[in-house]
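Support reply, case 0932

Customer input (verbatim):
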Amino acid sequence: MERYVAFDIGDKRIGVAVSDPFNTYALPSETYFRKGFVADVAAVAEIAKSKCATTIVCGLPVNFDGSEALQTQKTQRFIDALKAQTQIPVVCFDERFTTKMAHETLIFEGMRREKRKNYVDALAAANILDGYLNTIKK
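Our regenerated output:
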């Protein structure tokens, strides 16, 4: 049975989302607060394993026009290290606007600014995973 886990990899936090049992939609799971590159890669690999992931989906940030940004290179370095750390297949998916959509959703729901940082990354990861699930269904 397939199980997808998505990560929204940021400089300070990493959002985590998992697919439902039927891979129809994504569920925000948790936010991991970064501690250091090596520890973060190991923690993300362990999170994926603990969620019984058969595929890891990592959001890849690109500029509006699709070109690479500095953040793209930093994220790609993390993804490459994650691929070396785990046997679970890792795929990249365009994450343009996912964090913005997550912020807008939390604002719409009335969540205060100071609480949003605890949820926005997991919700952004869910947006990444929803996009990926929709793509593979087509």
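We compared this against your earlier run and they match. Two observations from our side: The chain has five helices and five strands. Helices lie at 37-50, 70-85, 98-108, 113-116, 120-137. Please reopen the case if you see a mismatch on your end.
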